[in-house]
Write a sequence for this structure.
């Protein structure tokens, strides 16, 4: 309901001010009136609606057409509106904020910025509410893990299949998968999981934990909130519009009550609903269902605390319109260590601190140099970027889906489609995410915030979406062989021309965008409603009426008081007023109706003038009524009727917006693949990996030239030998001669780590359905990429760097399957060389000894003693390779002695050339030579203690000279002094003897 209260607004004098204080966008401005010395008429010209905000549409209420200002405010300002369907309203913000958008109490005299401030609050809260992802997680001490989460923008509830023997890494992957803003967990979760969640959390007040801004709110609930039975009951009672439940209606507010068109036996109906529920979720996932109950309970708590009883907004707030299961194993398993090591997604704070906001909707993050960063700027729509990020977070292992995406990308990259793809990109840039737009419309908000122009408001966004969605549909329909591409077929089916044409024409017929831009609020066109046009016409002619009334008033009052009357004005809500000059000494008006049988009631004082209400003004109030507010009420009714019409098509709009977002994400992948010169890999079900001319997608962009390399690996065949139904193409080449493990050696800076990462990235990109940076690639389905590359150290972790390395290696050992790809880079370097070499040898022996269940492993190491002592030897399962270099010890400069070729070669390297790398990086030459000498001693297995205690030639010469001096001195015959005088005489003789000895030794050393 639109509320208007008695805070007065200052008058607007047409002859004294060039810019009105009240801006009403609903009618064109009146012609300029002639300037007069003391005008009598003053009304807000052409301004029908700044006071009652049209950004909040009215609630249904009793209708009454007022005839005078004395009519009750309830009847004047609460017109009866068409019945509003229950599904067409949604509000996720607290009632206090909703009230602030319509209340005028907070405004001071002469201030009309209150609405803008309310819009600011509304924008922040709406953005936060739509971005809410509420996740519940439960984990038993035996490692069984369950999870469920709710996405507010999609009004969808997702349940994860229960996972056995889960670890903290799996929990971390779940968080990466869902990106929650709130996490709920029972106190029974293992301590290490609780510590993990605590490290990334902030409290509900938004304060910072340990000086680090948290990513989500962590709440600990009672274990009873995660009970399985309670979760089932709440799922049965949730309000849902899932396709399988179209003949049923559930209400979240009363989780125990069930509604049905034909009410029968309650027990039978409960069993039927339970059976139907079991068709879309796995009722055996007991932990996940308990977590779903906790999420639904939290949604009900939010509605109870944020909405007053019987609040219509509460009927649809936090609704659940879809329920679905998901499993981490429908996609390739990739944990946070792998994401960071391979630089797949790397958000970072924006370097400009002014871009960092205080709330969750404006964290100011930007994408760093990453694989996702190569594509996300190519997506043109918000929903397209969201879908693209989700695709990158969940690489698929469905071979049909992967091949379908590859076919789509190849279709868009055809030379004949280049012009159409370019035009599609231009059209997509005009499309916004309709889910957020519809959510604003359901709340009755036509502009997300004060700083958002009308051209970017709800109505303009809907109109542009209708126009450009149809243009996109027509462009796709005209493409050759478009019927063979599934995404195009889905766009043609989902983007229905009928509803979109109705929406576009209704908005164009109703909204005057030109006037709306001028007046910075929504304006209704003339010709839409005859009553509205008549009210505007009468209001526009009110200036002439006020002029006549002012002239008559001058003639009625005494002549001495005529110059005290400034003018007559009309103010919304206050009606007609007479303006009298103020006596600065007494603080009263200079004229108060003396000589007339009338009472001049003082209403308010501002700018040295008093605004009074007298009998003549009251009569005009009775005659004309509050025309200003009546115009606003009718305009709001029209906008409300338009919103109801559009909300009748909200499902079609959301469906079209979502499918356009998916199209945008695929177009971004296609454009990026063509831009970077990538090729389509061949995906097979065989456990094989063959890459020719592979490149690192990030490294090749930052170096002048990049040397490509090949890779050939084959994992175990497992126990099954029958043909694979997923492999639709010709059989893959025989992989029987390919190793499952390859160990790389070579100098530092030779490209070993880049080789490992590029191989994993090619596999990762292939499972996205994207093209890959290679000349040719044959890639078998890979279920997991496990890495031991990067060590993420932190002061909050109670682990050393070596302990982190061991944990990563242990995780790879426990979770690797024969279809996994394992990357190991310099494992064991965190401890002494003997222990490190032993651990690496044991780890590689473990993988190669798994037989038919062995995974594909790529390892890089500098532990050459493993090979020199015969701990690992080449075999069918194990191959050696190295990064080739050229050595020229005769080169003058140390940096020219080692030439890196960055080319993979068979066999192993005999040295890491660490000393040469040190010299190239500025280490002193004496240090380098000493290091090389020690390296040679170690290579010959000599005693380092004896070698290090050996004296140099210079030190030996000095010691020999000292020895000769001592011996010569001992051979001298020295007499004992008997008296003091005798000692003084012999002192000079001893000195001469020593000098003679030193001269003799010096001459001997010189001659030698």
């Amino acid at each position: 309901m639109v509320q208007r209260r008695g805070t007065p607004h200052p008058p607007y004098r047409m002859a004294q001010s060039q810019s009105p204080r009240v801006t009403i966008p609903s009618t064109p401005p009146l012609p300029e009136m002639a300037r007069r010395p003391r005008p009598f008429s003053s009304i807000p010209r052409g301004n029908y609606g700044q006071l009652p905000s049209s950004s909040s549409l009215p609630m249904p209420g009793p209708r009454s057409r007022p005839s005078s200002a004395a009519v009750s405010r309830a009847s004047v300002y609460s017109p009866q509106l068409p019945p509003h369907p229950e599904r067409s309203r949604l509000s996720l913000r607290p009632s206090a904020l909703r009230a602030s958008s319509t209340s005028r109490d907070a405004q001071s005299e002469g201030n009309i910025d209150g609405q803008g401030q309310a819009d600011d609050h509304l924008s922040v809260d709406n953005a936060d509410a739509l971005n809410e992802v509420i996740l519940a997680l439960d984990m038993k001490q035996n490692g069984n893990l369950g999870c469920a989460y709710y996405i507010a923008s999609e009004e969808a509830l997702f349940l994860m299949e229960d996972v056995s023997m889960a670890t903290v890494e799996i929990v971390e992957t779940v968080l990466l998968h869902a990106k929650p803003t709130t996490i709920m967990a029972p106190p029974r979760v293992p301590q290490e999981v609780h510590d993990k969640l605590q490290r990334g959390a902030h409290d509900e007040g938004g304060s910072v934990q340990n000086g680090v801004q948290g990513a989500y709110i962590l709440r600990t609930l009672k274990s009873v909130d995660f009970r399985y039975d309670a979760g089932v009951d709440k799922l049965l009672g949730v309000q849902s519009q899932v396709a399988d439940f179209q003949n049923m209606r559930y209400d979240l507010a009363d989780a125990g009550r069930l509604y049905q068109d034909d009410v029968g036996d309650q027990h039978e109906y409960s069993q039927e609903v339970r059976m139907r529920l079991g068709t879309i979720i796995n009722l055996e996932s007991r932990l996940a269902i308990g977590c779903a109950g906790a999420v639904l309970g939290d949604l009900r708590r939010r509605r109870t605390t944020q909405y007053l009883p019987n609040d219509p907004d509460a009927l649809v707030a936090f609704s659940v319109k879809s329920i679905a299961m998901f499993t981490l194993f429908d996609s390739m398993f990739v944990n946070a260590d792998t994401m960071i090591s391979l630089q797949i997604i790397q958000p970072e704070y924006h370097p400009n601190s002014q871009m960092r906001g205080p709330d969750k909707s404006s964290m100011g993050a930007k994408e760093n140099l990453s694989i996702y960063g190569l594509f996300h700027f190519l997506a043109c729509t918000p929903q397209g970027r969201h879908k693209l990020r989700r695709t990158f977070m969940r690489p698929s292992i469905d071979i049909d889906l992967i091949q379908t995406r590859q076919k789509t990308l190849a279709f868009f990259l055809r030379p004949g489609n280049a012009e159409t793809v370019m035009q599609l990109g231009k059209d997509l840039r005009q499309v916004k995410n309709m889910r957020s737009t519809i959510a604003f419309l359901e709340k009755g908000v036509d502009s997300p915030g004060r700083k958002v122009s009308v051209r970017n408001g709800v109505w303009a966004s809907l109109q542009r979406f209708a126009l450009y969605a149809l243009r996109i549909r027509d462009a796709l329909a005209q493409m050759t062989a478009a019927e063979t591409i599934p995404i195009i077929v889905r766009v043609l089916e989902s983007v229905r021309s009928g509803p979109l044409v109705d929406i576009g024409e209704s908005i164009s017929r109703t909204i005057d965008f030109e006037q709306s831009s001028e007046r910075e609020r929504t304006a209704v066109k003339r010709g839409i409603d005859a009553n509205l046009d008549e009210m505007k016409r009468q209001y526009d002619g009110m200036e002439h009426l006020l002029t006549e009334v002012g002239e008559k008033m001058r003639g009625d009052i005494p002549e001495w008081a005529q110059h005290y009357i400034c003018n007559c004005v009309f103010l919304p809500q206050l009606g007609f007023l007479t303006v009298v000059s103020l006596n600065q000494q007494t603080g009263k008006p200079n004229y108060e109706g003396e000589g007339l049988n009338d009472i001049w009631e003082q209403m308010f004082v501002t700018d040295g003038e008093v605004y009074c209400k007298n009998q003549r003004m009251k009569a005009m109030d009775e005659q004309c009524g509050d025309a200003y507010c009546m115009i606003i009420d009718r305009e709001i009714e029209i906008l409300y009727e338009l919103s109801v019409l559009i909300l009748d098509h909200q499902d079609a709009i959301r469906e079209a917006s979502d499918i356009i977002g998916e199209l945008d994400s695929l177009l971004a992948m296609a454009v990026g693949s063509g831009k970077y010169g990538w090729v389509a890999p061949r995906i097979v079900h065989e456990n094989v990996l063959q890459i020719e001319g592979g490149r690192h997608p990030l490294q090749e962009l930052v170096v002048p030239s990049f040397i490509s390399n090949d890779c050939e690996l084959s994992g175990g065949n497992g126990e099954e030998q029958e043909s694979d139904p997923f492999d639709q193409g010709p059989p893959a080449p025989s992989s029987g001669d390919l190793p499952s493990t390859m160990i790389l050696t070579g100098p530092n800076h030779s490209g070993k780590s880049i080789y490992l990462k590029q191989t994993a990235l090619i596999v990762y990109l292939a499972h996205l359905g994207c093209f890959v940076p290679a000349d040719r690639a044959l890639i078998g389905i890979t279920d997991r990429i496990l890495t031991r590359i990067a060590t993420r150290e932190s002061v909050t972790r109670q682990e050393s760097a070596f302990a982190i390395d061991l944990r990563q290696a242990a995780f790879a050992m426990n979770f690797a399957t024969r279809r996994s790809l394992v990357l190991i880079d310099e494992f064991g370097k965190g401890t002494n060389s003997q222990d490190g070499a032993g651990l690496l040898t044991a780890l590689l022996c473990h993988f190669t000894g798994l037989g038919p269940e062995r995974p594909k492993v790529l390892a890089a190491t500098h532990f050459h003693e493993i090979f020199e002592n015969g701990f690992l030897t080449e075999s069918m399962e194990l191959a050696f390779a190295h990064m080739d270099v050229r050595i020229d010890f005769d080169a003058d400069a140390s940096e020219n002695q080692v030439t890196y070729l960055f080319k993979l070669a068979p066999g192993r390297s005999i040295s890491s050339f660490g000393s040469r790398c040190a010299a190239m990086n500025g280490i002193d030459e004496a240090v380098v030579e000493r290091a090389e000498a020690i390296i040679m001693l170690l290579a010959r297995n000599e005693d380092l203690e004896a070698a290090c205690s050996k004296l140099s030639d210079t030190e030996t010469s000095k010691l020999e000279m000292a020895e000769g001096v001592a011996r010569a001195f001992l051979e001298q015959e020295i007499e004992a002094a008997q008296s003091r005088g005798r000692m003084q005489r012999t002192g000079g003789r001893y000195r001469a003897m020593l000098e003679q000895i030193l001269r003799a030794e010096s001459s001997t050393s010189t001659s030698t």
The two ends are 113 Å apart (CA to CA). The mean pLDDT is 76. The first helix runs from residue 73 to 77. Residues 953-1007 form one domain.
